[in-house]
Amino acid sequence: MFSFVLLALVATVAARSHHLRDSASSIISRQKTTLPSTFKWASSDILVAPKNDARNIAAIKDPSIIHYNNAYHVFASTAVTSGYNLVYFNFTSFATANAAPFYYLDQSAIGAGYRAAPEVFYFAPQKLWYLIYQNGNAAYSTNKDISDPHGWTAPKNFYNGTPPLIQQGLEGGYWVDMWVICDETDCHLFSSDDNGRLYRSQTPVSKFPNGMSEPVIALKDNKNDLFEASNVYAIGNSAKPTYLLLVECIGAGSSPGGQRYFRSWTSSSLSGPWNALAATQQNPFMGEANVKFTNGNKWSKSISHGEIVRSNVDQRLRIGDCGWEYMYQGIDPAASSANYNNLPWKLGVLKQEGGC
Predict the structure, then answer these.
(1) Span of the secretion signal (predicted)?
(2) Which residues does the chain have with pLDDT short of 50?
């Protein structure tokens, strides 16, 4: 009888302990995953514009930005009538960004030809910097020193040609805007087709960049409601973070190239499912509806392709849960061009408003 009572008592204590652990875990989970349902941003004036140099580029676009070794490092697309290439520059404060020299990366082993929409991160297992970009395929180059623009290797592709699933969806669209983020076990490659489909592939961290799987559709919607320029981030430093997905969309309103804004989703896994957060043009993650401009100088109605400023620079793409800054491409609402490549996109920075 005594043994039976003792066992029952132990079971009760264990159950209560388990309940307390579950309750604590639930509280921690809520603390890690709670994001606001609405966002507010303040925009800088134009920070970076094309240089008046022999390149005569029309636009600077698609920035990827990190803060590392007391400097901001930016990789971006350059646009001219004939197409796109890549540029690198760095600066120590946003106030000096426009004075930073441009290093055109066609002078590195990345070479000339179509290269666009870069993403940069440090892949810690190999102690290498990776630059991910599009070249008609999903491409990458590596570098031991992010501050050495001549150190990038020649392009290599993740795939031999366009994967069949993506090819099937490309009519009237393009395979664009590759984005890599890794969790503890796998590296995931996201990409878009300009037709309302977001794709995801993966390979083990131990095999990266090789062995990328056939893509699956991660998210699907109407073309303009899930257009391109996805970003995916891990919120916080937990081994089980909340993931934040941003996708650029085209909404109602007058702006060159269509009025751009971002919708957002969250998930507990990079493989989804993705739950809508701020996901309408009226309540966007970022867009005309929730961005105010310095001194009322509304130099862009579109909030387009860019990236949250990262100071955790490794492949997990970790960011804090608030207080973000986002470098984006914007455009004069009065600009026009018969050739999209000639539209005069420039770069600015948003700062999230509101306390943590």
Answers:
(1) 1-15
(2) 1-32
Domain limits for position 202: 36-353
DSSP code at position 314: B
Task: Round the CA-based radius of gyration of the chain to a whole number and report it.
Answer: 22
Predicted TM-score of the model (pTM) = 0.90
Give the CATH number for residue 163.
2.115.10.20
Structure tokens at 41: 């941003």
Please give the Cα distance from 136 to 157 (Å, whole number).
10
pLDDT in tens, 27-54: 233 334 579 999 999 999 999 999 999 9
Output the DSSP codes for 97-115.
GGGSPPEEGGGSTT-SS--
The residue type of 341 is N
The dihedral built from the CA positions of residue 283, 288, 289 and 295, taken in this order, carries a sign that is: positive
Q: Which amino acid is at 301?
A: K
Q: Looking at the structure, do residues 19 and 150 belong to the same domain, yes or no?
A: no
Shared-domain flag, residues 9 and 148: no
Do residues 60 and 91 make contact, with C-beta atoms less than 8 angstroms apart?
Answer: no
318, β-bridge pairs: 234
Does 103 share its domain with 26? no
Count of the separate structural domains present in the chain: 2
Note whether 14 and 80 are same-domain residues.
Answer: no
Write down the pLDDT at residue 356. 66
* pLDDT for the residue numbered 340: 94
